[in-house]
Amino acid sequence: MSAIANSNQPEEKPKTSRVKAYWRNIPWKKLSSLVMAIALCFYLTACGGDKSVSNAPDPKVAIINITEVSPPTEIQRLSRLLDSYAPQVSIVSPKPDELLNDTQVSVKIDVKNLPIFKNADFGLGPHIHVTMDNQEYKALYDLSQPVTFDHLNAGTHTIRAFASRPWHESFKNQGAYAQTTFNILTKTGENTPEAKTPLLTYSRPVGTYGAEPIMLDFYLQNAPLHLLGKDDEVIDDWQVRATIDGQSFTFDRWEPIYLKGFKTGQNWVKLELLEPDGDAIANVFNSTAHLINYQPNGTDTLSRLVSGEKIADIDAIVNPDYVPPAPEVIPTPIESVSPEPAVTPATKPIEAPKPEVNNNPISTPKEEAKPTDKDTKSTNVVPVPVAPIITEPVKTSPTPIRSKYAPVAIPTKQPIAPKVVTPPVTPQETTKDKDTTQVMPKAKPAKDVVPEKQPKPNVFKPTAAQKIESKAKATDLKKNTKSTPETKPESKSTDSPPPLTDLSTTTSTPIKVLNSKN
User: Fold this and answer.
1) How many C-beta neighbours within 10 Å does residue 513 have?
2) How many helices (H) and strands (E) does the chain have?
3) pLDDT (0 to 100) of residue 510
4) Cβ proximity of 320 and 117 under 8 Å
5) What is the share, in percent, of the chain residues with pLDDT greater than 90?
6) Are 197 and 290 spatial neighbours (Cβ–Cβ below 8 Å)?
7) What is the DSSP letter of 57?
């Protein structure tokens, strides 16, 4: 046996060497490349298969193309008018855990810091959304009237209420939301939200719409708000998934979203509150779906607003005390009337006033030449501005005497009448009196140019002694007339005398002075 064994020993060694040689001769590099190629083919085939399956859905989903757009400009403007309000909502009745013995319930709401009303012209205004369990909300516009829900099932029910803007966007401040749970006939525990678990309340869209974009909105309770612009950091603790006719998208901001792409007719919308990883947050009402009806070309106020139309006096839906502005009075255009020559101020050239010339001469030599004895005797002493002294005519001989003195011209304009001063009588002054007496008959026309309010000059009335003395001096003057040198009388007035006109140089007839007879 040992021989067999020994004989067989050499035969086993070659077999071992052949196996090793086989494994050594395998091209491992090529084989690894081949395996990788096969694996890649399987991978690509699998991806392509998934893609083909996902592209073959229901044809109804293929025609839906929902897109997000910006909020309408007019709604943004009206929303800013309500930013100053922070409504506080409370449910007055029913009370928490109240047991009612009727299938009908009347809900009484109280609201502070927000006017609740409906504008009669536009049918919109700030209001309250009141939701029973997971039904569509009812809008409350009058706090004095309760909201009634009929035909409720026996068991536990929950009412949720929050303040809303006229276009059904929820107020998102603290205190704008309230809820209460009550029982009809008996307590069952259903429709009871967890107190500290995030809760989503579906708000919009519901009902019928006449224009796009359509707003999607909800109220969120017991969760970080994630308000746009309010969080410094992104908090991935919840998200909302919206599904419209089978097309889904997610978002993590609590804000209204305006969407376009709804098909005409009936559409369905579903909202779900999810964990960051996509799992549903377990709480009642966190998954809600509603039907809507979209009929384009609506003419209601909301359809006109979302379409971008600017409606006159639309501010009345946000302000109950709104007063329409007074209609602007547009002045009727008046044709500019060119000034006609007959209407213009200078229609007729206004002639410059010519200086009035007193045609009545101060003393005309021809008219004053021959005063009669009757005139001489009856001549009264008349005050003359330039004559300081007036005396009675001097009795002279019948023989006419030509006077060498030129008559004194009385100026037609004299601003101020000189004061009458009674100086001592001299022969020269007697001569002056004589000359003045000669031109006195025509001195009255000078009154025409005297100002109306000129004070009347003082009239000098000589006394009886002065008259006798004047007569005596006049007699002496008659005797010495030829021998007396010619002198110009000096004016005794306080003011400077007016210029005198020498009438002796004129070509008029010389004046003959006739002395009255005794």
Assistant:
1) 22
2) 8, 19
3) 54
4) yes
5) 46
6) no
7) S
With cut-offs at 50, 70 and 90, classify the pLDDT of residue 223: confident
Whole-angstrom CA distances from 370 to 337, 361, 513 are 68, 17, 7
* Tokens, residue 272: 């779900």
Report whether 163 contacts 90 (CB < 8 A): no
d(CA 46, CA 38): 12
Report the distance separating Cα 109 and Cα 127, nearest Å: 11
Q: What is the DSSP code string of 393-452? A: PPP--SS-EE--SPPPPPPS--SSPPPP--PPP-HHHHHHHHHHHHTGGG-GGGGGGS-T
Q: Distance (Å, rounded) from C-alpha 244 to C-alpha 137? A: 20
CA distance 428 to 387: 13
Q: Is the peptide bond before 327 cis (omega within 30 degrees of 0)?
A: no
pLDDT digits (tens, 9 = 90+) for 413-427: 555 555 555 555 444
CA–CA distance, 214 with 296 (Å, rounded to integer) = 11
Cα dihedral: 316, 317, 320, 324 (round 10) = 0
Q: What is the mean pLDDT of the chain?
A: 74
Residue 115: is the preceding peptide bond cis (ω within 30°)? no
